[in-house]
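Run log // design_07
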């Protein structure tokens, strides 16, 4: 079968490899669609924390089951499915608390023992597999995984008020976090981004205010909008050297700042706002299983995310897909790769 490997910095090759042999508790999925994630871009550019070339890209997937292991009971051949792409060790303190996202020994696609999803076939344990409802496209099934990231970010918030939230960075995860905040009942959602297309998308998806930090003082605008009080929560969904300071400067006293973006380089942070205003800082690492299950249910119930898919390419165009996401030569939110038609 064909698979897309990152073989060096900024270089993807399509290689022929064997179809995975499934275990007794696994299913074999004929891959239909995979999503290009920001973490794939980190891998492509050589900045990923633990995935290093040569490795198969991808972890967002939707496809059709074509083979089942002898111990599989919940699925049958022909089922349309997506996959929660991480497996905990099952023994550590975090796995015991159902926090597989924090397991230090977890497996994920593209790490030793599990191939990436940019391949014609993909194996997955039954416990990680979720059905895609009839009438829901494979494309929407692929978006369950990034939506789970957004749902987890919102779930990590402990401030009870849902008056105003700021989302700094309106790429795929930022926009999906907007959707998750909207569905969770936040009254006013403020989004920032440097791309006008993304700001327009944010407004279409229900943002109250969309601001470009290259063109205006976003902190001043937010404080003006909130009559000097600041937002209840600011979520950092992009990386820049000033973005955490922006977040803390627009957050009210006893509010919260959450970091969702995987910022892999050191950036300066002024801690004074956190102390003076008693602002809490938290991180949001991928998702828990309950978040993935909630995302699956929302999409199976008809949550419409079709507008988020801005590019569709073939597996042979994986290099081009990453270049588009990296260089933003086109208006882009989510790039999907169609693996098997």
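design_07 sequence
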């Amino acid at each position: 079968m064909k698979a897309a490997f990152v073989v060096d910095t900024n270089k993807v090759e399509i290689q022929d490899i064997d179809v995975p042999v499934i275990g007794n508790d696994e299913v074999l999925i004929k891959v239909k669609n995979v999503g290009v994630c920001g973490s794939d871009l980190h891998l492509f550019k050589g900045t990923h924390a633990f995935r290093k070339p040569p490795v198969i890209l991808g972890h967002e997937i939707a496809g059709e089951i074509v083979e089942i292991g002898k111990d599989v009971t919940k699925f049958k051949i022909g089922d349309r499915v997506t996959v929660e792409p991480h497996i905990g060790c099952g023994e550590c303190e975090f796995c015991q608390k159902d926090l597989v996202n924090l397991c230090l020994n977890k497996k994920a696609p593209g790490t030793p023992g599990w191939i990436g999803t940019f391949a014609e076939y993909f194996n997955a344990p039954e416990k990680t597999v979720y059905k895609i409802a009839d009438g829901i496209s494979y494309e929407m099934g692929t978006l369950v995984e990034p939506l789970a990231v957004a749902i987890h970010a919102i779930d990590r918030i402990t401030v009870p008020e849902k008056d105003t939230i700021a989302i700094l960075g309106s790429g795929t995860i930022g926009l999906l976090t907007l959707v998750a905040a909207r569905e969770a009942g936040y009254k006013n959602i403020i989004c920032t981004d440097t791309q006008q297309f993304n700001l327009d998308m944010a407004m279409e998806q229900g943002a109250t205010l969309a601001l470009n930090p290259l063109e205006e003082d976003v902190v001043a605008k937010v404080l003006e909008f909130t009559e000097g009080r600041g937002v209840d929560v600011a979520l950092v969904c992009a990386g820049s050297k000033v973005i955490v300071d922006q977040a803390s400067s627009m957050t009210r006293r006893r509010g919260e700042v959450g970091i969702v973006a995987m910022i892999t380089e050191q950036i300066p942070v002024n801690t004074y706002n956190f102390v003076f205003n008693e602002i809490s800082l938290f991180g949001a690492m991928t998702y828990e299983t309950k978040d993935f299950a909630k995302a699956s249910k929302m999409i199976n119930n008809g949550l419409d995310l079709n507008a988020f898919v801005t590019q569709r390419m073939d597996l042979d165009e994986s290099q081009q897909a990453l270049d588009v996401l990296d260089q933003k030569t086109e208006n882009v939110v989510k790039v999907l790769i169609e693996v098997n038609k």
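The mean pLDDT is 96.
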